[in-house]
Amino acid sequence: MPAPSVLSDIVFALPDVHPAWLPDAAFRPVGSRRLALGTPADGGAPAASEVLATLRAELDRATATHGGAVVGPQDAADLLLHLSPAVPTGFRLERSGGRVTVSAADPTALLHSWFHVVRRGEAAFASRPGDPDVDEHHAPASALRMLDHWDNVDVHPVMGQVERGYAGGSIFYDAGQVRPDLSRVTAYARLLAAVGVDRIAVNNVNVAAREARLLTDDLDEVARLAAALRPYGVRAHLSVSFAAPMTLGGLATSDSCDEDVRAWWRAAADRVWAEIPDFGGFVVKADSEGQPGPFAYGRDHADGANMLAEAVAPHGGLIHWRAFVYNHTQDWRDRSTDRARAAHDHFAPLDGRFADNVIVQVKHGPLDFQVREPVSPVLAAMPRTRVALELQVTQEYTGQQRHAVYLGPAWSEILRWRPWGDGGATVADVAAPAGGFAAVSNVGDDRFWTGHPLAQANLYAFGRLAWDPTLDPAAVLDEWITLTFPDAPGPLREAVHAILDESWHTYELHTAPLGVGFMVRPGHHYGPDVDGYEYTPWGTYHFADRDGIGVDRTRATGTGFTGQYPAPWRDVYEDRETCPDELLLFFHHVPYTHVLHSGTTVVQHVYDTHFEGVERVRAMVERWEAVAALVPDDVAQRVRERLAEQLRSAVEWRDQVNTYFLRKSGIGDLRGRTIH
Hints:
By secondary structure, this protein is of the alpha/beta class. It has 3 domains: about 10-140, Chitobiase, domain 2; about 145-485, TIM Barrel (Alpha-Beta Barrel), CATH 3.20.20.80; about 510-550 and about 590-665, Alpha-d-glucuronidase, C-terminal Domain (Alpha-Beta Complex). Helix content is about 35%, strand content about 10%. The strands form 5 sheets. The chain has an 8-stranded parallel beta barrel with strand order 7-12-13-14-15-16-17-18. Strands 2-1-3-5-4-6 form a 6-stranded mixed β-sheet, with helices on one face. Strand 8 and strand 9 (about 160) form a beta hairpin. Helix 15 (about 455-465) crosses helix 16 and helix 21 (about 600-625) runs antiparallel to helix 22. The protein is globular and about 80 Å long. The relative contact order is 0.08.
């Protein structure tokens, strides 16, 4: 364990790395006060705890920077943080007479409470006459709040160092090995602790030969990563290959029912936990997009997952088994094959068969993180299984962090959706107590962490919404703005809020319309290509012809996908008259002249929204230019460059999609605007 002074050097002295939502100025309200950290005499963990030492370093840093003082727990402190077994989960915050006492049962929860007070700023102390006393309990909705990194040890010839990574190289790996200096990893753990994320899978779910060796030959390097994360209470997980007993162990099979295979995995798990006692578990992508799995041996996903679960159970480990399974070599001529059905078809029949320490990790939609798609029916179909909601923070299909697209509103809409209708449980209610929340991270070794400085808001929002899915995403955005630009004048705050708050809807306006999805260039998925995937083995997504567009997924005449939903949604989606406009083309093939609930036709809606989307992006550019002088030059220039690309791309989307629809339908724009 580094001493606090050494830890301070690690996490605070990275001059070439942007501080994101933890700039020194954000600590002024707490750092200017008298702070105290309780000792084990308060009934907590040993004083040598790494997280407690980290917390002490945080207090020392804040007070040294802003003129406060760290005092003894018996002194009159403005903020006392202490351990108490009386708090079952999370932390308790009490305020009386402007003095704040925070208690938690474990050091990581106490660390989370510190960042909560920092986030509240002066409002945490509220020492003005007449301010009420406070006694609050803050606990995460789920015990599992995790980020999946798609980082490769070796640079992949197609996907690069980070698959679907849009912010440079990996913060973990470089030149085929774990980086010698992992100080930035610890700084990253600090950012995550500030928003309550406490688990990371440190390598790509598409496990290649080099990455597979992290489980064996390079386990000591995984231990180094775990050690870099540990001071901030973040636990390491590892993506593993189902074929590892063959590729790493020399066995003739990886059949989950073979006793030698089971023994190999038990021994592998024993080695991992012996090296990393607080290791979290394994993430597995099996029988999906070419990754090996139990299907090769006539087994199912429950067989494969439970074999691994047995191996890690003695150590309290988890298996995150991804439900992203579909036929990626389908014949586009076969309209009976529907990629949207696949996860439910594979996993719903297995409900109740997964071990207690298996978490089935389900993408939020039935396809693949599109800008608009319905919520996956799998989340409501497995009541006897621990399911996790998987989101994508990295903006694969939403502008790849070249575009400013704040996804908090999209995620909030998913979390609040009620699969069983009004009065029923929400998606958050289903996932939070079971498998929790996971997301694909958007971080790289770029100075700004996420490439686009404004894309930091998405990483922040995931952590906050995973902690409390009921939060207002607009309020979360304002939290991020306040922390990231702590001394921002009103015009800057208002401009950044205006740029981001409606940016998801803006992106939807000028890209694939009405839920149809996947009108992107194959492979890299950036920019428009309306027919790019329409005739490929990966799936068919819009079925546009001279008469209309959309995929018939009804029970009456289509693929039957609507039947995977419980009532009332199975019937709402089945009927084009009740299907929400924004999902119409996902569920129905309709004429271009079909009239939406909005009162306009499908084709006119396409024209109107794509022209409007470009104008909205133009307004974003203008808003930034009006306030760019109020931020550091490097931030101003990076955002300016990214917004210029966003405008160029929006114009390209508008022109390609509008022209495509004009040529398919033969119906002109009622407003007479230029369509090529």
